[in-house]
Each structure stands twice: as C-alpha cells, then as structure tokens.
Design brief:
Layout: H1 17-22, H2 24-41, E1 52-57, E2 68-73, H3 76-84
Antiparallel strand pairs: 1-2
Length: about 100
C-alpha cells in the first residue's frame, strides 16, 4: 500500500509522499503500530487532526468568501485508517475511531 502511493502534497507534518513510497518496507511496522494504537485507543495523534487549508477561487475575480472553495491537505498517514479499516467486531460502531 505505501509503495503504491501517488504524488501528493506534504501535509502539516511536512513528510513528502516519496518518503512513504521509497521507505515503505522500513516504515510499514512503525505505521502499523501507530494505526493499531489509534484504533485501540479510539483517538488519533493530534497532528493527524490538523490540515493545511488553502482557499482556491471559483471565479476569476473573487469578491466574496462564497467565491472560494477550501482545499484541505492532511498528512498521508491520516487517510490510511479511513481506507483500510472497514469493520472490526471488537470495536463498537459508537467508538470515536469511527
């Protein structure tokens, strides 16, 4: 999964996509531990809850906030549990992890 990552902008952690891609074998055990700990605790590390928000214009000359749309860039690792965790009977659906 890490070796198949596509080019993305670095998030608030500043880690570029190529670090995950080219160091997948070395990072896999560490990231697996972090993700499992997050699922077990029901709360992610605080940096995973942050995002870089950039306003992008919908019109050529914006004159109002409604003429902008937000683009949010989160850390890559923030999205991994969202894509891989589907159902775990040990964790109730009311858990903060969902």
């Amino acid at each position: 999964m890490l070796s198949g990552i596509k080019k993305t902008s670095p998030g608030v952690d500043g880690v570029p996509y190529w670090v995950y891609k080219h160091c997948a074998i070395e990072l896999a055990p560490v990231l697996t531990h972090l993700i499992n700990k997050t699922v077990n605790n029901g709360s992610p590390p605080s940096v995973w809850l942050k995002a870089l928000v950039t306003p992008v214009t919908k019109k050529t000359s914006p004159t109002d906030f409604s003429h902008l749309r937000p683009i949010c860039v989160t850390t890559y690792i923030n999205n991994v549990p969202c894509h891989r965790v589907t159902y775990c009977p040990q964790i109730p659906a009311t858990s903060p992890a969902f």
